[in-house]
Amino acid sequence: MRAVPWRHDLPASLVVLLVALPLCVGVAVASGVPAELGLVTGIVGGLVVGLLPGSSLQVSGPAAGLTVLVAEAVQRFGIGALGPLVLGTGLLQLAMGALRLGRWFRAMSASVVHGMLAGIGLTLVSGQLYALADRRAPGTGPQKLAGLPALLTDAATAAANPSAVALGLGTLLVLVGWKHLPARAARSVPAPLAVVGLAAAVTAAADLPVARVRVAGLLDVVQLPEPATLGALVGTAGLGTVVAFTLIASAETLFSAAAVDRMHHGPRTDYDRELTAQGLGNTVCGLLGALPMTAVIVRSAANVQAGARTKAARFLHGLWLLLFTALLPGALGLVPLTALAAVLVHAGAKLVPVRRIAALCRGHRGEALVLGATAVAIVATDLFEGVLIGVGLAVVKSAWQTSHLQIAVEELVLTSGRPLRRVRLSGNATFLRLPRLLDTLERLPGDRPVELDWSGLRHLDHACTLALTSWADQHRARASAPLAVEPPLPTVV
Hints:
By secondary structure, this protein is of the alpha/beta class. It contains 20 helices and 6 strands.
């Protein structure tokens, strides 16, 4: 590593620590695992991935984008199976990096990506609203949404824990308004850290009856994969979870890298090396039984905005996380869960790209439809199936748009005085346009000669060739006037 520019990277690493600390804990709690496992992933993201080549300034750790999927995996397979699932994710990412597949993630439809983030955000918000009221969230996305009216009624009538509701809403309001504070010194403190610290202080001072983070040592929660837990990797459910972890973690990492590259003028990201670095990080996390990691845009942006120049800043942030959890583990036990829920509600809401959706509705309604359908599918099913549905819709939309076919029917009179009806085809004739094409041709009367000109076609697929040949034979059989085809129809066997 080059000489460390301590004047820039040291303070930047402390800023990233302050942003990462509450997020590591909050993501772990929302995923249904001990808070320390989120810190383990953050430490590995700093100490391991932070030293590897790929991207110099983006920071890795547990991400809100995988919270829903991790919670489903823990509920289905048990917390002991989390290590093998994350280990499988890391090994698959290493293989993809070795095959230089990192750059292919840049080909993902932007609408699918934003739809994925919107679906994750909606699921995260709907689930964490229950935690904000000190309630247990239902298991599925539709059940969470269906239960919100009753939850709001309970919160308004004090049937839910009033202390938790008041503290959570207060935390959320302070979090939203933090950037509008007049004091610049106050705004320099990361909002998540400030609101969690304030909530912990209020809880301790007033001795509020709210649930708090349960604390154990790092060594107490680290679990090496056991042979009995490897069974989670057998079967379509386990393999599907590994593939989902891999695709979402890799996509979020590489999309984050593209965003971070636009924020600074330093070295650009090597996508294949970054994918390999993430694979190694997730392999280590899997061996430790921790959460899966991705590069996180919130921490990465904080790192860049704080003035970091090299990868030393992200390595140091991992070191500070390790020292904090080793020296001050009891401090986490003061944090109320409702405050962490408020932080995640705020983070989830920011994942919903409201402005982009509005812009797409004005100018690209097809893209807006793909985005909305992806988000709804994720909420209604799960992350993996929702993304697959979104990708399928994006492919269908692209196929439909690229199969433009122009059909022009011209009524002509030849120099001999003989009338002629000419049908000109141009563009791309694919099976997607067959209904319109055949409807036009079958409406042609047989009382005058027809000339079918398809010399302007750039592409003609096999289905259209068969359909046109069949129509031509039928037209000749029933029409009294001749049919001319230019160029001649090929012989179809």
